[in-house]
Amino acid sequence: MTLLSVNLNKIAVLRNSRGGDEPSLARAAQTCIEAGCGGITVHPRPDQRHIRPDDVRMLAQLLRGRVEYNIEGNPFAGARGSYPGLLALAREVRPTQITLVPDGDGQITSDHGFDLVRDADRLAPLVAGFREIGCRVSLFVDAGTTNFEPAVRIGAQRVEIYTGPYAAAFAEGRVGDALAACVETARRAQQAGLAVNAGHDLSQTNLGTFKAAIPGLAEVSIGHALIGEALYEGLAATVRRYLQILD
Ligand SMILES: CC(=O)[C@@H](O)[C@H](O)COP(=O)(O)O
Ligand SMILES: NCC(=O)COP(=O)(O)O
């Protein structure tokens, strides 16, 4: 069964736009959990454009023992203001999973994965640090990646396939090559002993095709499209629709 982890970044975007506490991140998480999601994802960025460190701490209390907690971030981005750095934050809240993403501040969103051959040695001590506190470690990778020996060597347990290009190709009606790259990357990762997650721009429209093509898909983390769809259909109903697609 593929776990649905709902990314709540966009709830925090809306909340921060007015400077108050509404819409409530806690209520959104509670609604998703009661609708049946298996996890919650957040991506606290150093510029705190949406998820803040105190959100991360609050969610850790709310989720503990109920659903998986996946925190994403760039492990090389240091502390800034009240953002303590990803490893420091993880040491505080001990999430189920840490997904390492090579995002820079200048990016409007995540748009690429790690080059595992080039980045493995730099990532190794950080992966060890997250493993030491009991977090499962997942590395964000591009579709088309085939050499997972470096990821295994440094102790990663999962990879998350960046599905942005797949979603774009799907929207243009030419999904073949993009989907085939995801399929091969998933196959090679599983062959190396890694479990496979996926995320970015997945939606009710494109998820079914992706899920059907990737045997053993462990988890999808979905936020932008899901929260947008929830504006029309309601958050609980939208989560249930995704669960039906994954069933
Ligand atoms: C890693 C990834 O693809 C997304 O999880 C990321 O969280 C998107 O970040 P924004 O919500 O800031 O666009
Ligand atoms: N890792 C992907 C994620 O958490 C959500 O990405 P998106 O659905 O907001 O594009």
Automatic annotation (TrEMBL):
Localization annotation: Cytoplasm
Positions annotated to bind 1-deoxy-D-xylulose 5-phosphate: 45, 50, 109
One GO biological process term: pyridoxine biosynthetic process
GO CC aspect terms: cytosol
Domain of life: Bacteria
Chain residues that bind 3-amino-2-oxopropyl phosphate: 7, 18, 201, 223-224
GO molecular function terms noted in the UniProt entry: pyridoxine 5'-phosphate synthase activity
The protein, known as: Pyridoxine 5'-phosphate synthase
Encoding gene, per UniProt annotation: pdxJ
